[in-house]
Write a structure and sequence with these properties.
The chain has a domain of 87 residues. The protein contains four helices and no strands. Helix 1 packs across helix 2, helix 1 packs across helix 3 and helix 2 packs across helix 3. The chain is elongated, with a radius of gyration of 70 Å.
Length: 243
């Protein structure tokens, strides 16, 4: 959009309207009504307008009026000077704020670049992880199928082995049962014979125990007699020694 320019006629018109309203035509007041134009341009046109007013006042009025106009012009200059100083202060403040904003923008730009680099790295890492996940899922499916197949084959083989062992055990049990039946009869006779032998041995053992008891009794009697004879023999030896 092209920049709107302010004309000298517009500035003079607004200034005259302000004077009619009993207001001082300052740069700020004129700028508020015009909404366009820079302070420098408005100040220049206002100064020219004041010069024109001064020339008209000098031509149309007497010396006293000229003094009043000069006084008013000096007051206007003072007010304009104050307004200019305020404007300069505002401009300086705006400049500082602009510099601060530009510094902030630079920092934010650097941070944004760093974040974009980080995001790009994370996206690359995510792509790698996704690829590895797909590979692992394929491996898992293959391993699952292989394990299932091996398990089924192993279960079938174990069932066959168990069935074979069961049949073999049945055959062995039947064979053992038949052998036990055949041996039981002969074993029964042998058991009876052994039992008879055991009874005979028990009788002999009882007889031996009786003999042992008799011998122990005899031995006890002999020991007692021996104990009674030892003092007598000792006494005899004592008498023989003294004689």
């Amino acid at each position: 959009m092209p920049k709107r320019l302010v004309s000298q006629e517009a500035v003079i018109k607004i200034a005259e309207e302000l004077l009619l309203d009993n207001r001082i035509p300052t740069v700020v007041a004129i700028r508020e009504r015009l909404k366009v134009g820079s302070a420098t341009t408005i100040c220049k046109y206002l100064r020219q307008a004041k010069q024109q007013w001064f020339m008209r006042a000098f031509a149309d009025k007497n010396n006293s009026n000229i003094d009043v106009v000069k006084k008013n012009e000096l007051e206007e200059k003072r007010i304009l000077k104050l307004e200019l100083q305020k404007q300069l202060c505002h401009n300086e403040t705006y400049a500082k704020e602009l510099i601060s904003a530009e510094t902030t923008i630079i920092k934010l730009t650097e941070t944004n670049q760093q974040l974009q680099a980080t995001v790009q790295k994370l996206q690359n890492d995510l792509a790698l992880v996704t690829k590895e996940k797909t590979i692992l899922e394929d491996c898992y499916q293959k391993l699952t199928k292989e394990i299932t197949s091996n398990r089924d084959a192993m279960i079938l083989q174990q069932e066959q082995t168990i069935e074979s062992l069961r049949q073999e055990i049945q055959t062995i049990n039947q064979t053992n049962f038949n052998a036990v039946q055949q041996v039981s009869f002969a074993g029964h006779d042998a058991l009876l014979q052994e039992k008879v032998k055991t009874l005979n041995l028990e009788e002999k053992l009882k007889e031996l125990q009786k003999l042992i008891v008799q011998q122990q009794n005899k031995l006890a009697v002999l020991n007692k007699a021996l104990q009674q004879q030892q003092p007598l023999e000792f006494a005899k030896h004592e008498r023989i020694g003294h004689g």
